[in-house]
Design brief:
This protein is an alpha/beta fold. Helices cover 31% and strands 14% of the residues. The strands form 3 sheets. Strands 6-4-7-1-8-9-2-10 form an 8-stranded mixed beta sheet, sandwiched between helices. It has a 4-stranded antiparallel beta sheet with strand order 11-12-13-14, covered by helices on one side. α5 (170-180) runs parallel beside α7 (225-254).
Length: 510
């Protein structure tokens, strides 16, 4: 990536520091911990399949590819919600977003009884810490837990090659964390890059030598240069955080800890583009996921089973020998990780159920857009419970500068792609309709024939029974799991919004 690499001096300082620490560990015999270390990487707004091992030609992700090649690559991994706070809360609590109470939507607030799983690891003897973003946006309650995963290591900084990138030296901060660890103490470290979350510097991908012709433009976007550049810039930020991950893997090798470290890499939800983030289509919910553990996991396997990110909490607690709380609905991925096979491991893992209540409008009082979705290997089924509400937020008639703020349709991040879709709506009406206009109550997509999910089959006669059966199955599961919306308490989420509003205005929650 050219100038994205650290200077020779920076690399020398980092490597010599590692060697010194490794020598200390060798002399003290400290490299004998039986409990595994855990390095967990949760990117911000990174969609499946945008890594090179999955065939995305416009990005180069050697670190992700290494983890996948040396471990397990999951072909059907999904977030619980396509929005930052509820998705990350779901991961930390090991349960669906709709059961995360006051953090089930953005700008929420954590409560004392909501215990993030890294705290359980810490209480069992792990050293825990993080760099970058763990949970948010919102207010966290445990002062000793910082933002959800212990002490934050963000002090080490660098000068990035783009104004859209964080200046946090993620790998340098990971090294500082490792240097503070006591002998024989297992660790859990959360690497939460802010990339590829917007802002993306317009044109940076092309200026850094990436090939715009290798970008695949989804069917729900117009194939114009503004969109191609925007997708390329998104890819550049993926490469940036992947580079830091590569350095972290090098650090683990130098410290002699790589073989006893479980490495997980995924994202909180999909890319910050129209019809992706904040939607329950694959572009909003489906995420890359790879896990390696050289001592235990057989390498070079692709698993077809469906998993959801709140499965990670019980899985990691189980690996660490910590009791899994009864209120975690996530299911351990033990079978998928420790099998010797590829493909389908557990036939019962043939679907996921996810959804969203509200992404924007929490403070302004704008309408929510509650949806639930059932995804299996044949179909994506969606039920929109308030189809008369604007799914992308209302449009107040604002100006649309190319790289300006969120603007109208405020549940969609401002971007060159958003602006292009709006400005070109007469020439390319379909992308505008798909991204911003109202949607019917039912949506059904054939995911094999229509991977971009633009042809709604729900109202065709031949699919009536499919819609009825998927709705029945989905809603029965949601009721059994305690989803308030399906148990006659849809007002639950509006009450939460009011509590959040009260809390953020400085008063106690209602």
């Amino acid at each position: 990536m050219g100038s994205c690499r650290p200077s020779v001096a920076e690399r020398f300082i980092r490597i010599t520091g590692c060697l010194a620490a490794c020598l200390t560990l060798f002399i003290s015999g400290a490299n004998g911990s039986k409990r595994p270390n855990i390095l967990m990487v949760v990117a911000d707004d990174h969609s499946y399949p945008d890594v090179s091992i999955l065939g995305a030609e416009f990005v180069n992700t050697p670190a992700f590819d290494r983890i996948a090649n040396e471990g397990v690559l999951f072909e059907h991994a999904f977030a619980s919600a396509p929005s930052c706070s509820p998705s990350r809360a779901s991961i930390l609590l090991g349960k669906p977003f709709y059961l995360t109470e006051s953090v089930s939507m953005n700008h929420g607030f954590w409560q004392d009884h909501m215990i993030p799983f890294p705290k359980l690891l810490r209480d069992s003897g792990y050293k825990i810490g993080s760099t970058g973003k763990v949970w948010g946006p919102g207010q966290f309650v445990f002062e000793d837990m910082e933002n959800g995963a212990g002490k934050i290591y963000n002090d080490k900084r660098l000068t990035p090659p783009s104004n859209g990138l964080s200046s946090i030296d993620y790998a340098g901060n990971f090294q500082e964390f490792l240097n503070e660890r006591e002998e024989n103490q297992p660790f859990y470290f959360w690497f939460g890059p802010s990339e590829p979350h917007r802002i993306l510097e317009y044109g940076i991908g092309k200026r850094m030598g990436m090939d715009i012709d290798k970008v695949r433009v989804p069917a729900y976007f117009p194939d114009v240069q503004e969109v191609r550049n925007d997708l390329l810039d998104y890819g550049f930020e993926i490469q940036w955080y992947d580079r830091h991950l590569g350095e972290m893997l090098d650090l683990l090798e130098l410290y002699g800890e790589l073989d006893n470290t479980v490495v997980i890499i995924t994202s909180d939800h999909g890319m910050a583009f129209p019809r992706a983030k904040t939607t329950v289509y694959d572009a909003g919910l489906r995420v890359p996921l790879a896990i390696k553990w050289p001592q235990e996991i057989q390498p070079s396997r692709k698993v077809t089973d469906f998993v959801i990110l709140y499965d990670l909490a019980p899985t990691l607690l189980e690996i660490a020998g910590v009791d899994v709380p009864e209120d975690m609905l996530g299911k351990s991925m033990h079978k998928q990780l420790f099998s010797s096979k590829s493909g389908w491991i557990d036939p019962t893992r043939d679907h996921v159920i996810a959804g969203l209540e509200r992404h924007g409008g929490i403070r302004s009082g704008g309408p929510d857009y509650p949806s639930r979705t059932y995804r299996n290997s044949e179909y994506l089924f969606i039920k929109n419970y308030e189809p008369d509400h604007p799914p992308a937020g209302p449009h107040p008639g604002v100006t649309w500068p190319r790289n300006g703020p969120v603007g109208g349709y405020g549940y969609v991040d401002g971007s060159p792609t958003k602006t292009a879709i709006y400005k070109l709506r007469e020439k390319y009406p379909e992308p505008f309709l798909l991204s911003f206009e109202k949607r019917p109550m039912y949506e059904l997509y054939d995911v094999e024939k229509d991977p971009d999910q633009v042809n709604n089959l729900a109202y065709l006669d031949e699919y009536n029974q499919v819609v009825k059966e998927l709705e029945r199955t989905m809603e029965a599961t949601l009721k059994a799991n305690g989803d308030p919306r399906l148990n006659g308490d849809a007002e639950h989420f509006e009450i939460i919004r009011e509590k959040i509003l009260k809390k953020t205005q400085g008063g106690p929650p209602l």
